[in-house]
Design a protein that fits this description.
The complex is a heterodimer of chains A (217) and B (299). Chain A is an alpha/beta fold and 217 residues long. Chain A contains seven helices and ten strands. In chain A, the strands form two sheets. Chain A has a six-stranded mixed beta sheet with strand order 6-7-8-3-9-10, sandwiched between helices. Chain A has a four-stranded antiparallel beta sheet with strand order 2-1-4-5, covered by helices on one side. Chain B folds into two domains: 187 residues, no CATH class; 95 residues, Alpha-Beta Plaits (2-Layer Sandwich). Classes of the chains: A alpha/beta (217), B alpha+beta (299).
Chain lengths: 217, 299
């Protein structure tokens, strides 16, 4: 489903974030990208999600080479992904429900259908009773769960999360992990960048260890 | 297809919500746009009314053909047959006897006419052409001058020509004014939308990351620009209607003093539609430029 071949990323100024990373992620897998701070975890998931472009090598998602993709095709590719960001990127000018509605508005889903699906997504992460709340009024763990609800409302085939348990206490982190696992169990490909060893030692997942931009196997 | 309609409906709803969410800003923008459109539209209305007044004062436009004093019946018949051929029935004959009787009847002229040894007036033909455009009239008159035994062709269009030239300058001025204010309208919308984009920066960033196309991001802003411009256009039509209804009475009083029947016309449905359409188009354009520029910057 996702094939990285000798992927390198060098930032302007000479910092090499990734160097010759090759890996394959199959459909339905749960993969943890781990490593020390600055090892290139975030960079790798950003490249896979087509948020950034590699400076060398290629990434192929669902048979599409991301480097060869035209800018106008990018939005449609992104709709295959559910993205959970490190800083969540929630919109504080609207309710939790309206945050989850955004991806459906982008695809032009009729409002009635969209509302039902958004409520189902909120239910899945245990936030249905907070649907009308502004995200600012939610706790850190709740905000992260809201971000997950927004990521999965379009039923993406690939769920990508960048440090989803950063800034969370261990109880909230465990809740979040259980949610990702549930999606993995229903067949969603899950890719999580994390520094939390508890996650990467999970038996149903596979770990990709990065150190200084290189893959350790 | 239905997804596309849903997206447009959502964008329109979004734009309306943004208009309603800051009524003071909206009102101020409508004022600026309305006034910017009112000035050239008022000029246009003025010229339109001046033209109406002129044509009602001028009555029907005529060309007079005066025959030579010694022109005989045969010469008259010749001209008659030519006029029949070229002007159909849009002409009449005024004999020299008729003309002098008409003059005698005019106050103060009777004694003068009586003192004359013989009738000094020629036979004449009065032509009322269909096409009263100055150039056409001039051409016709030149044609008549070539005819045999026609002594003098009088075309009373000198002042019409002058007035026409004046109106043309006026129209040109109004056109230039309109161009300048159209640019102002585009710039005003550009700026409003730029500020809105700044306010919605996070939303745009998130929407992009989760698969929004540029068109989707642009849509609520262009709808906003078009709505704001269109409403501004309606507002300017309202200003014009108020202005011309205030002026209507003094103008018709003035017209009565000049013995003319002339009423000031307010903005027609056509002009109202034109203003609304122009406002909407220009607003859309300003928004389009603004969003495209900032989307390119933040790629």
């Amino acid at each position: 489903m996702i094939v990285c071949s000798a992927v390198g990323k060098r930032y302007p100024g000479g910092l090499t974030a990734l160097d010759g990373v090759s890996c394959e992620i199959k459909a339905g897998e749960m993969v943890f990208v781990t490593g020390h701070s600055g090892a290139g975890k975030s960079t790798l998931v950003k490249l896979i999600a087509a948020i950034d472009r590699p400076t060398s090598g290629s990434i192929v998602v669902n048979g599409q080479n991301l480097s060869a993709l035209r800018g106008s095709a990018l939005p449609y590719l992104r709709r295959n992904f559910g993205l959970v960001f490190q800083d969540q990127k929630l919109l504080f000018d609207r309710s939790a429900l309206e945050n989850v509605l955004l991806p459906l508005a982008i695809t032009g889903t009729p409002i009635g259908d969209a509302t039902r699906r958004a409520q189902a997504a909120l239910d899945k992460v245990g936030l249905l009773d907070r649907a009308k709340a502004n995200p600012i009024a939610l706790s850190g763990g709740e905000q992260q769960r809201l971000a997950i609800a927004r990521a999965v409302v379009n039923r993406p085939a690939i769920l990508i999360a960048d440090e989803p348990s950063a800034n969370l206490d261990s109880d909230s982190a465990a809740e979040i992990f259980a949610i990702f696992r549930a999606f993995h169990q229903v067949g969603v490909t899950v890719i999580i960048a994390t520094h939390d060893p508890l996650w990467s030692e999970s038996p149903d997942g596979r770990a990709l260890h990065l150190a200084h931009g290189r893959l350790l196997t | 297809m239905s997804a596309w309609i849903n997206q447009h409906r959502a964008a329109l709803r979004d734009a309306l919500r943004r208009l309603a969410s800051s009524p003071l800003n909206t009102l101020l923008s409508l004022f600026v746009i309305g006034i910017a459109l009112t000035l050239p539209a008022a000029g246009w209305l003025l010229i339109d009314n001046a033209q109406n007044a002129a044509s009602s004062a001028a009555g029907t436009q005529q060309i007079s053909l005066f025959m030579a004093l010694d022109a005989d019946k045969k010469a008259l018949a010749e001209i008659e047959s030519r006029l029949k051929l070229e002007m159909a029935d849009r002409w009449r004959f005024v004999s020299r006897e008729e003309a002098i009787k008409h003059m005698e009847a005019t106050a103060g002229m009777g004694e003068l006419i009586a003192s004359l040894p013989k009738n000094p007036l020629p036979d004449a033909f009065i032509v009322e052409p269909l096409d009263v455009a100055p150039a056409a009239m001039e051409k016709l008159a030149a044609n008549f001058r070539e005819w045999p035994r026609v002594e003098h062709v009088q075309l009373d269009s000198g002042w019409v020509k002058r007035f026409d030239a004046l109106l043309r300058i006026g129209r040109l001025g109004v056109g230039m004014l309109a161009a300048v204010f159209a640019m102002a309208l585009v710039v005003v919308t550009f700026n409003t939308i730029r500020l809105q984009i700044l306010a919605h920066a996070t939303e745009i960033e998130v929407a992009r990351l989760i698969g929004a196309t540029d068109a989707w991001i642009r849509r609520p802003f262009t709808y906003f620009g078009a709505l704001q411009g269109g409403l501004g256009g309606l507002f300017s039509a309202l200003l014009l209607a108020i202005g011309s209804s205030l002026l209507a009475e003094p103008v018709s009083e003035l017209a009565v003093l000049y013995g003319a029947s002339f009423g000031l016309q307010g903005p027609s449905a056509g002009l109202t539609g034109l203003l609304t359409g122009a406002g909407a188009t220009l607003g859309w354009l300003g928004a389009q430029i603004s969003v495209s520029l900032s989307l390119r910057q933040h790629r």
